[in-house]
Amino acid sequence: MNRKDAKDAKAEDRELLALSPDSWPFSLALLPVPIYMVGGAVRDALLGRRREYLDLDFIVPSDAVQTARTIANHYQAGFVVLDAQRQIARVVFKDATADFAQQEGDSLATDLRRRDFTVNAIAFNPHTGELIDPLQGNADLQQGIIRMVSPANLEDDPLRLLRAYRQAAQLGFAIEDETRSTIRQLAPLLAQIAAERVRVELGYLLSSPQGTPWLNVAWSDGILRSILHDDVTATNLALVAQIDRASAKMAEIWPQIGVELSSGVPGLAADSKRTWMAIAKLTCLLIPAISLSEIDELNVSLNYTRADIHVENSSVEDFLKEMKYSVAEIRAVNTILKFLPQLRKAPMSVREQYFMFREVGVVFPALVLVAVAVGIPIEGIATLCDRYLTPSDRVAHPTPLVTGKDLMQALNLPSGPQIGQLLTAIQLARIEGRISTAAEALEFAKLHQKS
Ligand SMILES: Nc1ccn([C@@H]2O[C@H](COP(=O)(O)OP(=O)(O)OP(=O)(O)O)[C@@H](O)[C@H]2O)c(=O)n1
Ligand SMILES: [Mg+2]
Protein backbone atom coordinates (compact mmCIF):
# COMPACT_ATOMS: atom_id res chain seq x y z
CA MET A 1 0.00 0.00 0.00
CA ASN A 2 1.49 3.36 -0.91
CA ARG A 3 1.28 6.30 1.43
CA LYS A 4 -1.75 7.84 -0.21
CA ASP A 5 -3.73 4.59 -0.03
CA ALA A 6 -2.82 4.24 3.63
CA LYS A 7 -4.07 7.74 4.29
CA ASP A 8 -7.35 7.19 2.43
CA ALA A 9 -7.94 3.90 4.20
CA LYS A 10 -7.54 5.67 7.51
CA ALA A 11 -10.05 8.33 6.47
CA GLU A 12 -12.58 5.66 5.47
CA ASP A 13 -12.17 3.94 8.80
CA ARG A 14 -12.89 7.20 10.49
CA GLU A 15 -16.26 7.54 8.79
CA LEU A 16 -17.32 4.29 10.36
CA LEU A 17 -15.66 4.92 13.69
CA ALA A 18 -18.58 6.77 15.22
CA LEU A 19 -20.96 3.85 14.75
CA SER A 20 -18.36 1.19 15.57
CA PRO A 21 -17.85 1.12 19.32
CA ASP A 22 -14.92 -1.29 18.81
CA SER A 23 -12.92 1.58 17.40
CA TRP A 24 -13.73 4.12 20.13
CA PRO A 25 -10.89 5.01 22.46
CA PHE A 26 -12.81 3.48 25.40
CA SER A 27 -14.55 0.21 26.08
CA LEU A 28 -18.28 -0.21 25.59
CA ALA A 29 -18.27 -2.29 28.76
CA LEU A 30 -17.64 0.87 30.78
CA LEU A 31 -20.79 2.56 29.48
CA PRO A 32 -24.03 2.34 31.45
CA VAL A 33 -27.22 0.79 30.03
CA PRO A 34 -29.03 2.57 28.52
CA ILE A 35 -26.87 5.17 26.81
CA TYR A 36 -27.33 6.81 23.41
CA MET A 37 -25.02 8.50 21.00
CA VAL A 38 -26.59 11.57 19.33
CA GLY A 39 -25.78 14.65 17.29
CA GLY A 40 -23.21 15.31 14.62
CA ALA A 41 -21.23 12.07 14.93
CA VAL A 42 -24.32 9.91 14.27
CA ARG A 43 -25.47 12.19 11.48
CA ASP A 44 -22.10 12.26 9.74
CA ALA A 45 -21.54 8.52 10.11
CA LEU A 46 -24.91 7.85 8.47
CA LEU A 47 -23.87 10.16 5.64
CA GLY A 48 -20.47 8.49 5.34
CA ARG A 49 -19.12 11.95 5.90
CA ARG A 50 -15.61 12.42 7.19
CA ARG A 51 -15.12 14.34 10.44
CA GLU A 52 -11.85 16.07 11.20
CA TYR A 53 -11.66 14.26 14.48
CA LEU A 54 -13.84 11.99 16.50
CA ASP A 55 -16.13 13.97 18.81
CA LEU A 56 -18.86 11.84 20.26
CA ASP A 57 -21.97 13.11 22.07
CA PHE A 58 -23.78 10.78 24.47
CA ILE A 59 -26.90 11.14 26.53
CA VAL A 60 -27.72 9.09 29.62
CA PRO A 61 -30.86 9.16 31.79
CA SER A 62 -28.82 9.90 34.94
CA ASP A 63 -25.32 10.35 36.36
CA ALA A 64 -23.85 11.83 33.17
CA VAL A 65 -20.99 13.59 34.93
CA GLN A 66 -20.18 10.46 36.95
CA THR A 67 -20.14 8.35 33.79
CA ALA A 68 -17.65 10.73 32.18
CA ARG A 69 -15.51 10.79 35.33
CA THR A 70 -15.34 7.00 35.50
CA ILE A 71 -14.15 6.74 31.90
CA ALA A 72 -11.65 9.57 32.27
CA ASN A 73 -10.22 7.96 35.43
CA HIS A 74 -9.99 4.55 33.83
CA TYR A 75 -7.98 5.83 30.86
CA GLN A 76 -6.29 8.70 32.66
CA ALA A 77 -7.89 10.95 30.06
CA GLY A 78 -8.70 14.64 30.48
CA PHE A 79 -11.96 15.49 32.25
CA VAL A 80 -13.94 18.75 32.19
CA VAL A 81 -17.37 19.52 33.62
CA LEU A 82 -18.94 21.69 30.89
CA ASP A 83 -22.20 22.43 32.71
CA ALA A 84 -22.66 21.26 36.29
CA GLN A 85 -26.32 22.25 36.49
CA ARG A 86 -27.37 20.51 33.27
CA GLN A 87 -24.96 17.65 34.00
CA ILE A 88 -22.68 17.74 30.97
CA ALA A 89 -19.05 16.61 31.11
CA ARG A 90 -16.31 15.97 28.57
CA VAL A 91 -13.62 13.30 28.40
CA VAL A 92 -10.62 14.33 26.33
CA PHE A 93 -8.50 11.64 24.63
CA LYS A 94 -5.46 12.23 22.46
CA ASP A 95 -7.41 12.34 19.20
CA ALA A 96 -11.04 12.18 20.30
CA THR A 97 -13.46 13.74 22.76
CA ALA A 98 -16.63 12.29 24.25
CA ASP A 99 -19.32 14.47 25.83
CA PHE A 100 -21.79 12.97 28.26
CA ALA A 101 -25.02 14.86 28.92
CA GLN A 102 -28.02 14.19 31.05
CA GLN A 103 -31.04 13.28 28.95
CA GLU A 104 -33.53 16.17 28.81
CA GLY A 105 -37.03 15.26 29.85
CA ASP A 106 -38.16 11.85 31.01
CA SER A 107 -37.43 9.81 27.91
CA LEU A 108 -35.06 9.57 24.99
CA ALA A 109 -37.88 10.62 22.62
CA THR A 110 -38.53 13.76 24.67
CA ASP A 111 -34.85 14.62 24.53
CA LEU A 112 -34.73 14.15 20.76
CA ARG A 113 -37.86 16.27 20.30
CA ARG A 114 -36.13 19.19 22.02
CA ARG A 115 -33.31 19.35 19.50
CA ASP A 116 -32.81 21.74 16.61
CA PHE A 117 -33.13 19.80 13.36
CA THR A 118 -34.41 16.35 12.49
CA VAL A 119 -31.02 15.30 11.07
CA ASN A 120 -29.50 16.01 14.47
CA ALA A 121 -32.20 14.13 16.38
CA ILE A 122 -31.19 10.57 15.55
CA ALA A 123 -29.93 8.39 18.40
CA PHE A 124 -27.70 5.32 18.23
CA ASN A 125 -27.73 2.68 20.95
CA PRO A 126 -24.17 1.34 21.02
CA HIS A 127 -25.12 -1.69 23.13
CA THR A 128 -27.66 -2.96 20.57
CA GLY A 129 -26.58 -1.17 17.38
CA GLU A 130 -30.14 0.17 17.04
CA LEU A 131 -30.94 3.58 15.52
CA ILE A 132 -33.77 5.52 17.16
CA ASP A 133 -35.22 8.03 14.74
CA PRO A 134 -38.68 9.22 15.82
CA LEU A 135 -38.54 12.37 13.64
CA GLN A 136 -37.48 10.64 10.41
CA GLY A 137 -34.17 12.41 10.48
CA ASN A 138 -32.54 9.74 8.37
CA ALA A 139 -35.00 10.36 5.53
CA ASP A 140 -34.12 14.07 5.63
CA LEU A 141 -30.44 13.15 5.75
CA GLN A 142 -30.73 11.07 2.61
CA GLN A 143 -32.54 13.92 0.87
CA GLY A 144 -30.12 16.55 2.10
CA ILE A 145 -32.64 18.64 4.01
CA ILE A 146 -32.30 20.74 7.14
CA ARG A 147 -35.75 20.64 8.71
CA MET A 148 -36.63 22.16 12.07
CA VAL A 149 -38.08 19.87 14.72
CA SER A 150 -40.58 22.65 15.51
CA PRO A 151 -40.84 26.46 15.42
CA ALA A 152 -40.95 26.46 19.23
CA ASN A 153 -37.55 24.75 19.35
CA LEU A 154 -36.04 27.48 17.21
CA GLU A 155 -37.57 30.08 19.48
CA ASP A 156 -36.24 28.29 22.58
CA ASP A 157 -32.67 28.75 21.39
CA PRO A 158 -32.47 31.31 18.57
CA LEU A 159 -28.82 30.43 17.91
CA ARG A 160 -30.38 27.55 16.01
CA LEU A 161 -31.48 30.06 13.36
CA LEU A 162 -27.86 30.66 12.46
CA ARG A 163 -26.93 27.00 12.91
CA ALA A 164 -29.31 26.12 10.08
CA TYR A 165 -27.19 28.10 7.59
CA ARG A 166 -23.94 26.83 9.03
CA GLN A 167 -25.02 23.22 8.88
CA ALA A 168 -26.50 23.61 5.40
CA ALA A 169 -23.12 24.99 4.32
CA GLN A 170 -21.12 22.24 5.99
CA LEU A 171 -23.28 19.38 4.80
CA GLY A 172 -24.13 20.78 1.37
CA PHE A 173 -27.83 20.59 2.32
CA ALA A 174 -30.86 22.75 1.55
CA ILE A 175 -33.01 24.40 4.21
CA GLU A 176 -36.57 23.16 3.94
CA ASP A 177 -39.06 25.92 2.93
CA GLU A 178 -41.20 26.07 6.04
CA THR A 179 -38.11 26.00 8.22
CA ARG A 180 -36.62 28.84 6.26
CA SER A 181 -39.70 31.03 6.49
CA THR A 182 -39.90 30.37 10.24
CA ILE A 183 -36.26 31.37 10.54
CA ARG A 184 -36.95 34.60 8.64
CA GLN A 185 -39.79 35.45 10.98
CA LEU A 186 -37.76 34.71 14.09
CA ALA A 187 -34.58 36.43 12.87
CA PRO A 188 -34.76 39.38 15.31
CA LEU A 189 -34.49 36.92 18.23
CA LEU A 190 -30.86 36.25 17.33
CA ALA A 191 -29.98 39.60 18.84
CA GLN A 192 -30.58 38.06 22.29
CA ILE A 193 -27.92 35.38 21.90
CA ALA A 194 -24.58 35.58 23.69
CA ALA A 195 -21.91 36.98 21.39
CA GLU A 196 -19.55 34.05 21.94
CA ARG A 197 -22.08 31.56 20.63
CA VAL A 198 -22.86 33.64 17.57
CA ARG A 199 -19.16 34.12 16.91
CA VAL A 200 -18.54 30.36 16.73
CA GLU A 201 -21.29 29.79 14.14
CA LEU A 202 -20.24 32.83 12.14
CA GLY A 203 -16.66 31.52 12.25
CA TYR A 204 -17.73 28.33 10.51
CA LEU A 205 -19.45 30.30 7.75
CA LEU A 206 -16.38 32.46 7.27
CA SER A 207 -13.84 29.67 7.27
CA SER A 208 -14.75 27.76 4.11
CA PRO A 209 -15.73 28.60 0.53
CA GLN A 210 -18.97 26.62 1.02
CA GLY A 211 -19.87 29.12 3.73
CA THR A 212 -19.92 32.10 1.40
CA PRO A 213 -23.15 31.43 -0.53
CA TRP A 214 -24.89 30.59 2.75
CA LEU A 215 -23.62 33.76 4.31
CA ASN A 216 -25.38 35.54 1.47
CA VAL A 217 -28.58 33.60 2.02
CA ALA A 218 -28.41 34.37 5.75
CA TRP A 219 -27.91 38.01 4.85
CA SER A 220 -30.90 38.15 2.52
CA ASP A 221 -33.03 36.29 5.10
CA GLY A 222 -32.27 39.06 7.59
CA ILE A 223 -30.27 36.80 9.88
CA LEU A 224 -27.00 38.67 9.75
CA ARG A 225 -28.75 41.99 10.22
CA SER A 226 -29.67 41.12 13.78
CA ILE A 227 -26.06 40.19 14.51
CA LEU A 228 -24.08 42.72 12.54
CA HIS A 229 -26.49 45.65 12.91
CA ASP A 230 -27.10 47.94 9.99
CA ASP A 231 -23.51 48.68 9.18
CA VAL A 232 -22.93 45.81 6.82
CA THR A 233 -23.95 46.38 3.23
CA ALA A 234 -24.30 44.19 0.16
CA THR A 235 -20.84 45.46 -0.79
CA ASN A 236 -19.36 43.74 2.23
CA LEU A 237 -20.96 40.45 1.25
CA ALA A 238 -19.63 40.84 -2.30
CA LEU A 239 -16.15 41.36 -0.87
CA VAL A 240 -16.35 38.17 1.16
CA ALA A 241 -17.03 36.31 -2.08
CA GLN A 242 -14.04 38.07 -3.65
CA ILE A 243 -11.87 36.53 -0.92
CA ASP A 244 -12.63 33.03 -2.19
CA ARG A 245 -11.58 34.02 -5.69
CA ALA A 246 -8.56 35.98 -4.52
CA SER A 247 -7.30 33.19 -2.28
CA ALA A 248 -7.49 30.62 -5.05
CA LYS A 249 -5.49 32.95 -7.26
CA MET A 250 -2.92 33.67 -4.57
CA ALA A 251 -2.49 30.03 -3.60
CA GLU A 252 -1.74 29.28 -7.22
CA ILE A 253 1.02 31.88 -7.43
CA TRP A 254 2.34 31.56 -3.86
CA PRO A 255 1.43 28.11 -2.50
CA GLN A 256 3.03 28.88 0.87
CA ILE A 257 0.76 31.89 1.36
CA GLY A 258 -2.18 29.60 0.53
CA VAL A 259 -1.06 27.22 3.26
CA GLU A 260 -0.71 30.00 5.82
CA LEU A 261 -4.15 31.40 4.98
CA SER A 262 -5.78 28.07 5.81
CA SER A 263 -3.92 27.65 9.07
CA GLY A 264 -5.19 28.70 12.46
CA VAL A 265 -4.52 32.05 14.08
CA PRO A 266 -1.85 31.47 16.79
CA GLY A 267 -3.15 31.65 20.32
CA LEU A 268 -6.62 30.31 19.51
CA ALA A 269 -7.89 26.82 20.20
CA ALA A 270 -7.18 24.47 17.29
CA ASP A 271 -10.88 23.64 17.00
CA SER A 272 -11.98 27.28 16.91
CA LYS A 273 -11.91 27.14 13.08
CA ARG A 274 -10.60 30.65 12.96
CA THR A 275 -8.04 30.75 10.21
CA TRP A 276 -6.33 33.72 8.58
CA MET A 277 -8.76 33.23 5.73
CA ALA A 278 -11.64 33.69 8.19
CA ILE A 279 -9.96 36.83 9.54
CA ALA A 280 -9.69 38.18 5.99
CA LYS A 281 -13.38 37.48 5.40
CA LEU A 282 -14.35 38.99 8.72
CA THR A 283 -12.45 42.12 7.74
CA CYS A 284 -14.29 42.22 4.41
CA LEU A 285 -17.59 41.77 6.19
CA LEU A 286 -16.88 44.73 8.45
CA ILE A 287 -14.71 47.04 6.38
CA PRO A 288 -16.28 50.46 6.69
CA ALA A 289 -17.74 51.80 3.51
CA ILE A 290 -15.71 54.96 3.88
CA SER A 291 -12.40 53.11 3.48
CA LEU A 292 -13.86 51.19 0.58
CA SER A 293 -14.77 54.32 -1.27
CA GLU A 294 -11.22 55.60 -0.78
CA ILE A 295 -9.88 52.42 -2.29
CA ASP A 296 -12.50 52.52 -4.99
CA GLU A 297 -11.32 55.87 -6.27
CA LEU A 298 -8.11 54.35 -7.54
CA ASN A 299 -9.58 51.03 -8.16
CA VAL A 300 -9.73 48.40 -10.78
CA SER A 301 -12.97 46.55 -11.41
CA LEU A 302 -15.07 45.56 -8.43
CA ASN A 303 -18.31 43.67 -8.65
CA TYR A 304 -20.39 46.25 -6.91
CA THR A 305 -21.80 49.60 -7.74
CA ARG A 306 -20.93 52.81 -6.02
CA ALA A 307 -24.56 53.15 -4.99
CA ASP A 308 -23.98 50.31 -2.55
CA ILE A 309 -21.41 52.33 -0.72
CA HIS A 310 -22.61 54.41 2.14
CA VAL A 311 -20.70 56.13 4.85
CA GLU A 312 -21.26 54.60 8.22
CA ASN A 313 -19.93 55.62 11.56
CA SER A 314 -19.78 52.68 13.93
CA SER A 315 -16.41 51.33 14.84
CA VAL A 316 -15.25 47.93 13.69
CA GLU A 317 -13.21 47.53 16.83
CA ASP A 318 -16.21 48.12 19.09
CA PHE A 319 -18.12 45.44 17.26
CA LEU A 320 -15.27 42.92 17.54
CA LYS A 321 -14.97 43.61 21.26
CA GLU A 322 -18.70 43.21 21.69
CA MET A 323 -18.46 39.86 19.92
CA LYS A 324 -15.62 38.91 22.28
CA TYR A 325 -13.09 38.28 19.56
CA SER A 326 -9.59 37.66 20.90
CA VAL A 327 -6.98 40.39 21.21
CA ALA A 328 -4.99 38.67 18.42
CA GLU A 329 -7.97 38.75 16.05
CA ILE A 330 -8.91 42.36 16.81
CA ARG A 331 -5.32 43.38 16.27
CA ALA A 332 -5.24 41.48 12.97
CA VAL A 333 -8.38 43.16 11.62
CA ASN A 334 -7.15 46.60 12.70
CA THR A 335 -3.77 45.98 11.10
CA ILE A 336 -5.36 44.98 7.82
CA LEU A 337 -7.58 48.07 7.80
CA LYS A 338 -4.63 50.27 8.67
CA PHE A 339 -2.29 49.08 5.92
CA LEU A 340 -4.78 48.54 3.13
CA PRO A 341 -4.58 52.15 1.88
CA GLN A 342 -0.76 51.99 1.85
CA LEU A 343 -0.72 48.83 -0.22
CA ARG A 344 -2.66 50.38 -3.01
CA LYS A 345 -0.27 53.31 -3.09
CA ALA A 346 2.30 51.33 -5.08
CA PRO A 347 5.19 51.40 -5.14
CA MET A 348 5.91 51.67 -1.42
CA SER A 349 9.38 52.89 -0.49
CA VAL A 350 11.72 50.34 1.06
CA ARG A 351 11.42 52.25 4.31
CA GLU A 352 7.62 52.03 4.23
CA GLN A 353 7.86 48.34 3.47
CA TYR A 354 10.21 47.79 6.41
CA PHE A 355 7.81 49.47 8.85
CA MET A 356 4.85 47.66 7.33
CA PHE A 357 6.44 44.21 7.72
CA ARG A 358 7.56 45.06 11.23
CA GLU A 359 4.04 45.91 12.32
CA VAL A 360 2.12 43.39 10.25
CA GLY A 361 4.19 40.25 10.98
CA VAL A 362 2.14 37.05 10.70
CA VAL A 363 -0.94 38.99 9.58
CA PHE A 364 0.72 39.59 6.19
CA PRO A 365 -1.00 36.82 4.18
CA ALA A 366 -4.44 37.97 5.37
CA LEU A 367 -3.56 41.58 4.57
CA VAL A 368 -2.52 40.87 0.99
CA LEU A 369 -5.52 38.63 0.53
CA VAL A 370 -7.90 41.42 1.50
CA ALA A 371 -5.91 43.76 -0.72
CA VAL A 372 -6.44 41.54 -3.74
CA ALA A 373 -10.10 41.03 -2.81
CA VAL A 374 -10.78 44.77 -2.78
CA GLY A 375 -9.24 45.01 -6.22
CA ILE A 376 -5.60 45.95 -5.71
CA PRO A 377 -3.80 44.31 -8.63
CA ILE A 378 -1.66 41.27 -7.85
CA GLU A 379 1.32 42.97 -9.52
CA GLY A 380 1.03 45.68 -6.92
CA ILE A 381 1.71 43.28 -4.08
CA ALA A 382 3.98 40.76 -5.82
CA THR A 383 7.26 42.25 -4.56
CA LEU A 384 5.92 42.25 -1.02
CA CYS A 385 4.83 38.61 -1.26
CA ASP A 386 8.22 37.61 -2.64
CA ARG A 387 9.97 39.42 0.18
CA TYR A 388 7.69 37.82 2.76
CA LEU A 389 8.47 34.36 1.38
CA THR A 390 12.25 34.92 1.25
CA PRO A 391 13.70 34.31 4.71
CA SER A 392 16.94 36.09 3.83
CA ASP A 393 15.09 39.25 2.73
CA ARG A 394 16.25 41.99 5.07
CA VAL A 395 13.24 44.23 4.58
CA ALA A 396 10.70 41.58 5.52
CA HIS A 397 12.90 39.60 7.90
CA PRO A 398 15.56 41.91 9.31
CA THR A 399 18.35 40.39 11.40
CA PRO A 400 20.29 42.62 13.78
CA LEU A 401 23.82 43.71 12.81
CA VAL A 402 24.38 44.76 16.42
CA THR A 403 22.40 44.31 19.60
CA GLY A 404 21.15 46.92 22.04
CA LYS A 405 23.83 45.74 24.44
CA ASP A 406 26.55 46.32 21.82
CA LEU A 407 25.28 49.87 21.39
CA MET A 408 25.16 50.58 25.13
CA GLN A 409 28.75 49.40 25.53
CA ALA A 410 30.25 51.02 22.42
CA LEU A 411 28.51 54.36 22.89
CA ASN A 412 28.41 54.28 26.65
CA LEU A 413 24.64 54.80 26.71
CA PRO A 414 22.06 53.90 29.35
CA SER A 415 19.17 51.62 28.41
CA GLY A 416 16.10 53.49 27.22
CA PRO A 417 14.03 54.32 24.16
CA GLN A 418 17.07 55.85 22.44
CA ILE A 419 18.60 52.38 21.99
CA GLY A 420 15.50 51.15 20.15
CA GLN A 421 15.56 54.23 17.92
CA LEU A 422 19.23 53.68 17.08
CA LEU A 423 18.61 50.01 16.28
CA THR A 424 15.83 51.00 13.88
CA ALA A 425 18.04 53.63 12.26
CA ILE A 426 20.75 50.98 11.78
CA GLN A 427 18.28 48.58 10.19
CA LEU A 428 17.07 51.25 7.79
CA ALA A 429 20.63 52.26 6.87
CA ARG A 430 21.38 48.62 6.21
CA ILE A 431 18.40 47.93 3.95
CA GLU A 432 19.11 51.15 2.07
CA GLY A 433 22.63 49.84 1.45
CA ARG A 434 24.45 52.50 3.44
CA ILE A 435 26.11 50.07 5.87
CA SER A 436 26.73 46.33 5.88
CA THR A 437 28.94 45.30 8.82
CA ALA A 438 28.72 45.49 12.61
CA ALA A 439 31.65 47.92 12.74
CA GLU A 440 29.93 50.21 10.23
CA ALA A 441 26.75 49.95 12.26
CA LEU A 442 28.50 51.18 15.42
CA GLU A 443 30.21 53.96 13.50
CA PHE A 444 26.86 54.92 11.97
CA ALA A 445 25.22 54.92 15.40
CA LYS A 446 27.89 57.28 16.77
CA LEU A 447 27.32 59.76 13.97
CA HIS A 448 23.56 59.36 14.08
CA GLN A 449 23.51 60.01 17.80
CA LYS A 450 25.42 63.26 17.40
CA SER A 451 23.25 64.52 14.56
N1 LIG B 1 -28.18 25.08 19.74
C1 LIG B 1 -28.14 23.75 19.69
C2 LIG B 1 -26.91 23.07 19.71
C3 LIG B 1 -26.93 21.68 19.65
N2 LIG B 1 -28.09 21.01 19.57
C4 LIG B 1 -28.12 19.54 19.56
O1 LIG B 1 -26.90 19.02 20.10
C5 LIG B 1 -26.18 18.25 19.14
C6 LIG B 1 -24.68 18.46 19.28
O2 LIG B 1 -24.38 19.81 19.11
P1 LIG B 1 -23.06 20.33 18.37
O3 LIG B 1 -21.91 19.46 18.71
O4 LIG B 1 -22.97 21.78 18.63
O5 LIG B 1 -23.42 20.19 16.83
P2 LIG B 1 -23.38 18.95 15.90
O6 LIG B 1 -24.72 18.79 15.27
O7 LIG B 1 -22.81 17.79 16.62
O8 LIG B 1 -22.46 19.41 14.74
P3 LIG B 1 -20.88 19.39 14.59
O9 LIG B 1 -20.32 18.75 15.82
O10 LIG B 1 -20.67 18.62 13.35
O11 LIG B 1 -20.52 20.81 14.46
C7 LIG B 1 -26.77 18.69 17.81
O12 LIG B 1 -26.63 17.70 16.83
C8 LIG B 1 -28.21 18.93 18.17
O13 LIG B 1 -28.92 17.74 18.30
C9 LIG B 1 -29.30 21.70 19.54
O14 LIG B 1 -30.36 21.08 19.45
N3 LIG B 1 -29.32 23.06 19.59
MG1 LIG C 1 -20.94 17.76 17.82
From TrEMBL:
tRNA nucleotidyltransferase/poly(A) polymerase RNA and SrmB- binding domain ranges (all copies): 172-228
Keywords of the record: Magnesium, Membrane, Metal-binding, Nucleotide-binding, Nucleotidyltransferase, RNA-binding, Transferase, Transmembrane, Transmembrane helix, tRNA processing, tRNA-binding
Gene Ontology biological process terms from the UniProt entry: tRNA processing
Named cofactor requirement(s): Mg(2+)
Membrane-spanning parts: 355-378
Domain Poly A polymerase head stretches: 35-147
Protein name: CCA tRNA nucleotidyltransferase
Lineage of the organism: Bacteria, Bacillati, Cyanobacteriota, Cyanophyceae, Oscillatoriophycideae
